[in-house]
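Bug #77: duplicate submission created two jobs. Keeping one. Sequence:
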Amino acid sequence: MLPHTVFDIASPRSPILIPSSAPIPALETAQRTPGPLVQLLGVGKSYDHPAGSFRALEGANLTVNAGEFVAIVGRSGSGKSTLLNLVAGIDRATDGEIRIGGVDVGALDEAGLARWRGRTVGLVFQFFQLLPTLTAAENVMIPMDFANAYPGAERRPRAMALLERVGVADQATKLPASLSGGQQQRVAIARALANEPALVLADEPTGNLDSQTADAVLALFRELATAGTTIVMATHERDARQAVDRTIVLADGRIVEDSRRVAGAAA
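Kept job's structure:
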């Protein structure tokens, strides 16, 4: 059978040719049952530079249960984005093991990794990364098209339903440039949910938003987590801690604090 091309929007690498009959790794759709979803076991990451090796993450041990809303916080350069990129399979760990729903992410080849990510992980970025020549609805359809996750006739109705869910269905036919920052981020969240992922990873998702819009995005994440989607969010915003179930603090590439929000505390 001829291969088809999967464009992995999470990766700067070239498109990957994948046989259309290739099996998709386990955990194709959202895991809604209690228990560990993300497991990091002694994970470290080093980068080589002309001046020498730089250790961005060191000995990270972390378990995130299905349905948790977790904030990864720390100063710039503390390792937040590195941790998210490793969990997403955008980058590979130098040492240690990463398991998502039982899948050993490090054991997947590039083709399998792209297919696994497309069906398992939703990504939300600080700068939205919407394609400027596509409408809001078309941007949401992209992951469905690339992962061949739904029949073609179902993709636009599903995109519209997701835009409705995040409150911007009335913007479906507009290009990103005509949307506000908050509207673009909501479209990006709808895109992240397109294939009903078990895990949503958000890297500074409120960094370019005003405080009111940021609060609305955090409230939306809270709603998603309550419905069973696992959310792991890297942020430098101190106020975000009030919205999450749990806060992981990184410093110099190490986890130095792991705390949970006190039951009954204001979100």
